[in-house]
Amino acid sequence: MNPVLSLSQISYKYHTLQGETEALREISFTLNQGEFLAVVGPSGCGKSTLLHLIASLLSPSSGTILMNKMPLSKSKTQIGYMLQKDHLLEHRTIYKNILLGLEIQKKLAVPHLLTVETMLKEYGLSDFRDAYPRQLSGGMRQRAALIRTLALSPDLLLLDEPFSALDYQTRLKVSNDIGGILKKKHMTAILVTHDLSEAVSMADRILILSKRPGTVKKIVPIHFAKTPASPEEARSMPEFTDYFNLIWKEVKHEA
After folding, report:
1. Tell me: the pLDDT tens digits for 140-156?
2. What residues does 11 pair with on adjacent strands?
C-alpha cells in the first residue's frame, strides 16, 4: 500500500534572540489511506510543530515530507486543519461560517453545497444553520468547524487539540461524535492530543514523542479483539486499560 503521507528524517530548528532551539529531530513515519494516527508526548515536545510542518506552515530544517509520493510544494493533496479554537466568525451565521472555505476557494458549486446540506443534517446542525456562533454550545461550534473543514473534501485531516477548550463532559461527547464521523468516512487523519484516553479510543496507531527535541520514541498499533463502534465503546473494552497504561508509562518518563 502506498502511503498518503511519508516523513523521512524530519528535523526542525527555530531561532530566537537567545539562539537556536532544536524542536524536532529526525522524525520518520508513514500514514496510509484511511488511517487515524494520534501523536502524544510531553508539553513542548513539538507535537503542534509537527502538524505545522505537514501543513506547510513551516519548512523543515532537514528531511523530506511526501504526500502521495510528491513533495509538499508540488502535491495537489488537500489538507484540512482543525484547531483548538473553532475560529467561527461571530458576524456570520453558522451556515455562512461553514461556507467560508468554499467561498475563499471559489467552490460554491451545487455538489459542494449539497454535501454541506447532508452534513448539517447528519451532524445535528440543520436547525441551527441561521443561528450565530454565540448562540451555540462549545460542542456544536466544534461540529460546525468540522463541517467547514470537511466541506473542502480534504485528503488528510490534521486535528490540533480540537477538543481541549471544552469542559470534560462535553469533550467526551464531542470527541466520540467526531471520532465516529471520521471513522465512518474512513478519513486519513492525525490527531495531536494530551489526553491519552482520547488517543487510545480514537486512533489506529499512537506515535509517542520524546521530550524536546522531539524524537519518535515509539509507535504503538491499537488493536481491539472486537472492532469498537465508537470511541466511547472503545473506552469500555478490556484492552483499553492495557494500552492506556503502556502509553502512560512511555510518556511519564519524558515529563
Report:
1. 998 899 899 999 989 99
2. 62
